[in-house]
Amino acid sequence: MSGKLCRQLLGLNPFKQSYISLYSCLDAKDKTIACGAVLFAIAAGLPLPIIGVIFGRLISSFPPSEDELSTRISQLLGVAVAYLDTNDIEVNGLLTQTIDNIQAGCSEKVGIFIQSLSYFVAAL
Fold it and tell me: CA–CA separation, 52 vs 49, rounded Å?
């Protein structure tokens, strides 16, 4: 059996390259954008576990006092602010062009993986 086939059967990387090495050809600006995308993907995975913790605290103190209810609603609104979006046509056009350029170098699945990993760690 060839070494490449053995590595595939064992579930190892048959090409002896890491995923990160795919981004080695990017210049400094593109690497900065990719790092920013990783940070935003991590941030996108955090709100759901935080909401779970807030609801858990609310349920633990049921029936909540008026002050505690006010505090928990404020916390939920604080988490919801991360999801506010503006609808500006010029920004959307610029984002579409930029995202098309970025998508040429990386896949959406990388962001989903990082978001899911962040979700797992935050939930843990």
Answer: 5
